[in-house]
Amino acid sequence: MSHLNLDKLRNAPLEHTPFDYLIVPGFLGSDSVAKINATYPNIEKGGSYPVESLSSTMAIKEVIAELDTPEFEAVIEEKFDVVLEGRPKMYSLRGYTRAKDGSIHTDSKDKIITVLLYLNENWQQPGGRLRILHDGKNVDHFAAEVPPDNGTLLVFKRSDNSWHGHHPFEGPRRSLQMNWMTSDNSKGFHAMRHKLSAAMKKITAP
After folding, report:
1. Average pLDDT, the chain
2. DSSP bridge partners of 97
3. How many domains does the chain have?
4. C-alpha of 127 from chain center
5. How far apart are CA 53 and CA 1, in angstroms?
6. Burial of 66 by CB count in 10 Å (0-12 exposed, 13-18 middle, 19+ buried)?
7. Tell me: the pLDDT tens digits for 163-192?
8. Residue 21 maps to which CATH number?
9. What's the rounded Cα separation, in Å, for the pair 131 and 167?
10. What CA–CA distance (Å, rounded) separates 99 from 12?
11. DSSP-assigned letter for residue 149
């Protein structure tokens, strides 16, 4: 079963204001979203989790394998006019958003491209909807709002003004994040941080 709709990605317009980004609703079909959620890991605390320990029976592993292909990379290279071949990639999962999450930020400088794939079904909450922002001060001064559901894809090029964030939400909120990184050293730092964070959450879980 193929999960990614690369034709939708190829046809999606690249927006340049306030920074380079694109949004692809339905990048994953409804059958894929349902299959992913039926086998998604039980994440009950906030923060990012590494994907290395995922079971092969989890559908999200199939999605990661497709994102890892040269075909997906080539489309992103063409869209954003960047060279990504040979750049290290980092993946992480989220399953729960805390009230403190969603603060305005640009992403760290060692990230080249950020890919966010939203896995929730029919998001009804006013909070937790990622916004593409015009500045780093006002979450209501936004160019676009992305509901985190139904296989929607958001991709943006990291820059000093790639401000994004969302209004607070606390509760289950599933997403997969992928980044092309500037170097293996930067990937290793983030991966180790995620692994330590996940280990601490497991240790302190009731």
Report:
1. 90
2. 171
3. 1
4. 17
5. 22
6. middle
7. 999 999 999 999 999 999 998 775 554 554
8. 2.60.120.620
9. 9
10. 32
11. B
CA distance 170 to 3: 28
Burial class of residue 122, CB neighbours in 10 A (0-12, 13-18, 19+): exposed
Look up residue 67 and give its two tokens: 């994102």
Q: Does residue 1 sit within a domain? A: no
Q: Give pLDDT, residue 184.
A: 74
Domain with 132, as residue range(s), is 6-204
Q: Are the beta carbons of 112 and 157 closer than 8 angstroms?
A: yes
pLDDT tens, position by position, 88-132:
999 999 999 999 999 999 999 999 999 999 999 999 999 999 999
Residue 26 Rama label (left phi>0; alpha psi -120 to 50; beta): left
Question: What distance lies between CA 59 and its chain's CA centroid?
Answer: 16
Contacts of residue 27, defined as CB under 8 A and 6 or more positions apart, other chains included, come to 4, 5, 8, 9, 117, 151, 152, 153
Q: How far apart are CA 98 and CA 189, in angstroms?
A: 23
The reported pLDDT for the residue numbered 173 is 97
* Inside any domain, residue 122: yes
Query: Which residues fall within 8 angstroms of residue 22, CB to CB, at 6 or more apart?
Result: 9, 12, 13, 14, 15, 79, 153, 154, 155, 156
SS3 147: coil
